[in-house]
Design goal:
Length: 182
Amino acid sequence: MDEKNNNPDSTLFLAGGDILQSQLISNWYDGASTIELLNDMELDAFVAGNHEFDWGVDVLTQYFNGQSNLQANFPLLGANVYEKSSNEMVDGFEPYTIIEKSGVKIAVIGTVGYGLESSIAYARIKDYKFIDPVERVMYFAHKARTEDDADIVIAINHADDDGFNNSIANLKGDYKVDAIFN
């Protein structure tokens, strides 16, 4: 955190998923202790990973949609997290966020890896699906550049996926992604 404290106008602090799960205290409190810590550390954006769904979508999204006393001070990103019944993005998730640092508009688009539903207990994910992250990143990169005047676009995909990386790296013009993180 020294870098962010020393250079707050030029440092991004991003999380790429599986942050709320695995620590005993975080598991005991359904991620609340980690949300508090990330608030204190001034996280800029949080991309959901497959293990954020281990407690169920309602438990995860309560920290982002006003349903809990504790609210995250950062957005929950999941541009490809959709409800099966409505084919709409799940409430509580944002596709991307715009962060301004030193006068530069940076769009951060977050996706969960394609097909990772199989790594989540069926009862927790049965009503949801992770649609094609490449298509969603293309769509939102274009939107961020043309509607929000983003100078830089970053894609964070919660999966180590060469197909995703190669597809996104080849985008040009208003679809261009400047950095990819997995």
